[in-house]
Amino acid sequence: MSEAPVPGARLAQLNRGPRLRSTGASRGAAVDDVARAVHDLASPLTVLVGLCFALRRRTADAAVVADVGRIEAEVERISDRLEALLALARGGAGRRATARAPLSLVAVARDVAARGSLLARDCGARLQVELGGDRLVVEGDARALETAVENLVANAVRHAGADGTVWLAASRDDGHAVLHVADDGPGVHPADRERIFHPHVRGRGVVGPGQGLGLAIARETARGHGGELVLERSASGAVFRLSLPLMAAVKQRWECGAA
Asked: Considering the entire predicted model, what is its pTM?
């Protein structure tokens, strides 16, 4: 039987989250609350990992094994989000320390779009994707970037609402790979243009589920990769621009710094 390719070690680290936190007053009670929440969420995921492992060993049914693989993939994605939350509580240091490798930002966006289309359909919205043929190779953490783009798409779908439209487009601009995520929802109040990137802050008039963390995590991830996430000015709706240095630009920056 095949061994289970699940993030057991990563979940074990997350389960130790509260002990990794500084509990001093200067860190604030909110920081400790985040670490405690990460721990509480990681515990049942660890149980789920064990159940998947046991099920893999007890069956040779290809359909069941495929279903287990999908569950494991979702556990992996949830673990990524928990790590992102913990990194945000630490001021982003965790994201900057992750291993990087060359990857196609378009490929990351395409994977997110496949899931985002299902989310949009469930919400009665439409997701239009224009990624083109350029691979837009950057140096980065694939899981972190996937989480960032997913946060942007989910945010756009939520604000577009029923019968709304969300756009996901890729391009290159001045040595950067660029993703635009836009929606035709109500837009962002001018006073909230920067506030919405702060942890636990939501735009005015925003209702429904959410903790105000998705945009904060996405921006921290972008900046941790030497890029940026901004809200562009638009006549209607909201347009977010995620930019990352292309691989050639990263190499040139490193060579100039080393000279």
From this structure: 0.69
Length of the chain: 259
Cβ atoms of 11 and 42 closer than 8 Å: yes
3-state secondary structure 6-48: CCHHHHHHHHCHHHHCCCCHHHCHHHHHHHHHHHHHHHHHHHH
Token pair of 243 as six digits: 């930019």
Tens of pLDDT, residue by residue over 123-168, are 899 999 999 888 999 999 998 899 899 999 999 998 898 999 999 9
Domain ranges of the chain: 8-90, 101-254
Q: Could you tell me if 95 and 220 are in contact, meaning their C-beta atoms sit under 8 angstroms apart?
A: yes
User: Is residue 213 classed as helix, strand or coil in its secondary structure?
Assistant: coil
Domain 101-254: CATH superfamily is Histidine kinase-like ATPase, C-terminal domain (3.30.565.10)
Torsion of CA 165, 173, 221, 240, to 10 degrees: -30
Distance CA 69, CA 90 (A): 31
Q: What's the CA gap between 254 and 210, in Å, rounded? A: 39
